[in-house]
Design brief:
Length: 168
C-alpha cells in the first residue's frame, strides 16, 4: 500500500532542499520513509522542506497517488495527540498543493486519509492523497474505503485528535 514508485508519470516539481547523507534528529535508520527523506534511496521527492516531504506511492491506487509525510519521524496516526492537529492540517494543504501543481483542479474528487493501525505497512505517519477518487480501482476502493476499520480520512483524524483533550 505505501511505498515508493518507479517513474510512471512525471508530476510537476516544487522546491526541493536536498538532504545530506548524514542522518539528523528525528531520523530512524530502519524506517523506509526516513531513508527516503534523507535521500538514501534515490526516490523522487515532489516536495521536501524542514517539516514535510511528498513522493509518489509505490502502488498507486489512483492516477495521482502521493504520500505526504513529516520530514522527521512521527509515529502512526494512533500515536498522535491534539497538539498534532496543525501538522495534519499542513499535510493536507501540502497534498492539495501537489495536486494543483499536477493539474488536478477538482478537489471534490480527492481522498485524503491514513491507514489505521494495525493496517499500515509503515509506522512513519503518512497521508495518502488520491485523485481522482472516482477512478480508483475496485481493490483501491477497498484499501482506501471510507468509514472502515482500516482507513480514516484526514478530517476524521483531526476531529478525533481535537476531542482527545475533552475527555481527559
Amino acid at each position: 500500500m505505501a511505498g515508493v514508485e518507479a517513474n510512471v508519470t512525471q508530476p510537476a516539481q516544487v522546491e526541493i532542499s536536498k538532504k545530506g547523507s548524514v542522518p539528523t534528529e528525528g531520523y530512524e535508520e530502519k524506517c523506509i520513509f526516513c531513508r527516503i527523506v534523507n535521500n538514501e534511496l534515490g526516490t523522487e521527492l515532489l516536495h521536501c522542506d524542514e517539516e514535510l516531504s511528498c513522493f509518489r506511492d509505490i502502488k498507486p491506487g489512483a492516477p495521482h497517488h502521493y504520500l505526504v509525510i513529516p520530514s522527521k519521524h512521527v509515529g502512526n496516526c494512533k500515536s498522535l495527540s491534539k497538539e498534532h492537529v496543525p501538522l495534519v492540517k499542513r499535510m493536507v494543504e501540502t497534498g492539495k498543493e501537489i495536486l494543483q501543481k499536477n493539474n488536478v483542479t477538482d478537489l471534490s474528487d480527492v481522498r485524503f486519509g491514513f491507514h489505521w493501525p494495525p493496517f499500515c505497512s509503515v509506522t512513519h505517519l503518512h497521508l495518502h492523497v488520491l485523485a481522482p477518487a472516482s477512478q480508483m480501482s475496485f481493490m483501491s476502493r477497498l484499501f482506501y474505503r471510507l468509514n472502515s476499520y482500516w482507513f480514516i480520512t484526514a478530517d476524521q483524524l483531526i476531529e478525533l485528535l481535537n476531542s482527545k483533550g475533552e475527555t481527559d
